[in-house]
Amino acid sequence: AAMYQAKLEGRGRIRHFQPSMRERLTRRARLGVDLQGAIRSHQLHLNYHPILSLDSGHLEGAESLVRWNHPVLGGISPAEFIPIAEESDTIFDLGAWVLEESLRQMSHWIQACKDLAPDVISVNVSRKQFSDPQMIENFARIIRESNVPPARIQLEITEDVGDIDLDLVVTRMHQLKQLGVKIAIDDFGTGTSTFAAIKSFPIDTVKLDISLVSQIVSSIDRAAIVHSLAILVRNLNVKMVAEGVETAQQIPVLQELGCHSAQGFYFSKPLDAKDFETQMGLFGTHGFTVEGFESFP
Ligand code: C2E
Ligand code: MG
Ligand code: MG
Ligand code: MG
């Protein structure tokens, strides 16, 4: 459509438009090729984002977030390279690496940090991984070999299952549940799949997307939509976590909505493993300015 528009606007525009289009495609193709070697050559690492109880400040979880430091192009966002990985089977290897590395880190924290360690490690899983016939077998092996209790592992799956068959997604979710792990629906409120679909998912947690959370204090209309979604989620008897909490004002509104856990830049940026470990035990003890939070030790 952009190309068509450019044509309508005359020849000069076309010449102007093409290089950037070509550049984008070239970058995409290059990243796709480079990503295959990135895992082997240690260009990937994980950051961890704390998930906190809004009631107690307790560190309920850590979400692992993959980072790619490209030797020539520098830091590349997962928002850019995950979709590229999903276009090929690279996502299978990448997903396995992310799970393995997350569990290796969690296992270390459980041993070294004891009670200070997060209750749960939360790992993003691409819906494309569901189409891997080896997925369950591989996950079972990685989990078993990690020595992390499966009850302390959560897998995050986006609400919108896209072009993956819904029956397959539900089957895989049940297979994962049988491994003893928790399942979270990520980016809830952004998908095209209806709320009806998630009712058939065996889930433990729903993560309200930042696009909902960011608007609860700024727009009365949005707040009303989030409110009705929250009531539906509450009736499913699952845990509700708010993503992308950036201001103190959002906290009492979220609590009112029945959302008792949150993550976001207000509490912390995603941290590398070392910084996360240093901060452990401090999360939730500072920066909380709403009523009820002063009572934290
Ligand atoms: P997500 O799973 O919904 O992760 C949350 C994203 O929101 C992260 O961005 C995080 O840094 C950001 N975020 C958290 N709190 C705030 C906040 O208060 N304000 C704002 N503006 N942003 C906040 P990130 O790390 O760039 O990840 C983007 C997406 O890439 C993730 O969204 C997830 O869908 C995907 N992703 C990241 N790591 C992995 C992975 O290991 N595997 C897969 N399959 N996908 C991943
Ligand atoms: Mg996530
Ligand atoms: Mg999310
Ligand atoms: Mg999100």
From TrEMBL:
Keywords: Membrane, Transmembrane, Transmembrane helix. It comes from the Bacteria. Residues 28-284 form the EAL domain. GO terms for molecular function: cyclic-guanylate-specific phosphodiesterase activity. This is GGDEF-domain containing protein. It comes from Blastopirellula marina. The chain holds residues 273 to 569 of 585 of the full protein.
